[in-house]
Structures are given as C-alpha cells and as structure tokens.
Amino acid sequence: MAQCVTCGSELHPERAEKYDYCTRRECREQNARPLTIAAVAVNKAADQYLVVNDRTMEDLAAGRFQDQRKSSSVTDGRPLRRTPAPGARAVRRRPAARKPAEPGRPTWTRSQEDLAGIWSAQGMRPDEIAERLKVSRSTATQMVLAAKRRLPR
Fold first, then answer.
1. Which of 10, 75, 83, 106 is the most exposed place for a label (fewest CB within 10 A)?
2. C-alpha count within 13 angstroms, C-beta hemisphere, residue 15
C-alpha cells in the first residue's frame, strides 16, 4: 500500500496512481505544485485551455495552435506587427480632415440613419442615440426624422 511522503499515512489506491501525498491540508500545501495553464484561441467565441507540459510545449513550438491566417507563410514572411526600434518615438497620425458636407446632403451614413430610426422606435432618446453613434444631439434628431420620413410605418 502506498504511503504519503509527508505524514506517512496510507493512500487510497486511486489517489496513489497520480499523487504521492494525501489530502490533508498540510500535505497538500507542502507537496502540491501549481499547473501552468495556457489559453489557446480556437475561434472568436471560445478559447481552449491546456495544461502546459512537455508535449504541449512541443506542439506550441511546432505551431500547432497558431492561427494560419496570421502565419508568416501567409504574410510572405513579414510579421503582422512591427516593433519599434529602441529609443524610437511613437508618432501619432492625425485623422484625415473631413470634407465639408454638400448643401442639402446629410453628414451621416444610411446605416447610421437606420440605427437611429430603430433605436428611436424602441424608445431611446435622441441624446442616447447621439452618444451611441458619436454624433451631436441635433444630428441624431435629424437622423431620426429622416428615417421616419423614409421608412413607411
């Protein structure tokens, strides 16, 4: 019969198959080793978690869990993200200046107008719509009115 390496008590045969210590708190605290867990992305909806051991490390090194869309063979050997050189300063690009809207033409897209109409029909206030679409309250109101004119009831 197997015995605990810490206190010497007898181990249950099933426990002895995997562990060499008993389930007493003192023995667990002294002998238990933490497992390293790795999240391996499977798709956008869920990740797969693996216990990292020798076999898993070999699989990771071989690229088994690598997203093929991001592999170097797909991107012609160029990395997707470039790391800046040491001491280089980060340069922020300014967004392109918007052209002024033509007279009589709205400054929003059709999809934004559709969303504003849907949200208004659901009871959302113009200031909430404006916050979600990142436009002014006046623009959100105009979008709601345009959507109501365009769409039949």
1. 83
2. 15
Q: Give the gyration radius of the chain's Cα atoms.
A: 30
Q: 């105009």: which residue's tokens? A: 142
Sign of the Cα pseudo-torsion (65, 69, 75, 81, in order): negative
- Rounded to the nearest 10 degrees, the angle between the axes of helix 110-121 and helix 126-133 is 140
The residue ranges of every structural domain in the chain are 1-33, 37-70, 110-150
The model's pTM is 0.35
Q: Residue-wise pLDDT tens for the chain (153 aa)?
A: 889 999 989 999 998 998 888 989 999 888 888 888 887 766 677 777 888 888 888 887 787 777 666 655 544 555 555 556 666 666 666 766 666 666 777 788 888 999 999 999 999 999 999 999 999 999 999 999 998 888 766
DSSP structural state of residue 98: P
Residue with tokens 């181990």, as numbered in its chain: 11
The rounded distance, in Å, linking the Cα atoms of 131 and 124 is: 11
